[in-house]
Amino acid sequence: EVQLVESGGGSVQPGGSLRLSCVGSGFTFSLVAMGWARQGPGKGLEWVSQIHANGALTYYEDSVKGRFTISRDNAANTLYLQLDSLQIEDTAMYYCVKFSSSGYYLENPSRFPRGQGTLVTVSS
Prior knowledge:
Number of strands: 10
Number of helices: 0
Helix content: under 10%
Shape: globular
Structural class: mainly beta
Radius of gyration: 13 Å
Oligomer: single chain
Largest sheet: 6 strands, mixed
Strand order of the largest sheet: 2-10-9-4-5-6
Order of helices and strands: EEEEEEEEEE
């Protein structure tokens, strides 16, 4: 059974930082691409970032480029998302998403397995 467990969310002021983690189990973590998606208040689920199985290729949604960094530790079955320079608009539930192959693609994130999410709240 695929399990994705996120952690690291919290409440921060604008300009603050957080580091999200996601531990995957029930599948061979090192063989599949992974991603982070988010759903803000009153919004749909949207991609934030994605990373190839080998960690060499990454994708970022335009609004987070230069502020967020995705990475992975395949030995620890863990996916990370470093969130810096957080903005109020980044407030959302953040989900770890698993692809079915080594490469990633921009299909609707709702189509892929995801965890329960970790809440990020940015407010002054």
